[in-house]
Specification:
single chain, 4% strand, elongated
Length: 97
């Protein structure tokens, strides 16, 4: 990406009232799937990455195994999993019409 294009993008962002933290500024293009705050934006609608969903399934298995020996810890983990599942449902069921 050319320096001129970077400056144009920065100007657009700043014109919309955002402040750019230059220490965290990163431009990427090409093979990487475009992600905004962990949400894949390469489709017509937002999607949560597969890795995030796999981690939820792994946590469910871990909670099931833990439930036999540490039911209170398993309950805490189940609540966390429930929140993550609701997050996925919310992101992937946004009405884009």
């Amino acid at each position: 990406m050319s320096e001129q294009n970077k400056q144009v993008i920065k100007k657009i962002i700043e014109n919309h009232g955002f402040i750019i933290n230059t220490a965290k500024e990163k431009f990427s293009a090409g093979d990487n799937a475009p992600n905004i705050t962990g949400i894949n934006t390469s489709y017509a609608y937002p999607k949560v990455p597969r890795k995030y969903k796999r981690n939820i399934r792994a946590a469910i298995n871990q909670a099931n195994a833990m439930a036999r020996h540490e039911p209170l810890q398993a309950e805490i983990l189940y609540r966390s999993i429930t929140g993550r599942k609701k997050y996925v449902e919310y992101i992937e069921n946004i009405d884009n019409a």
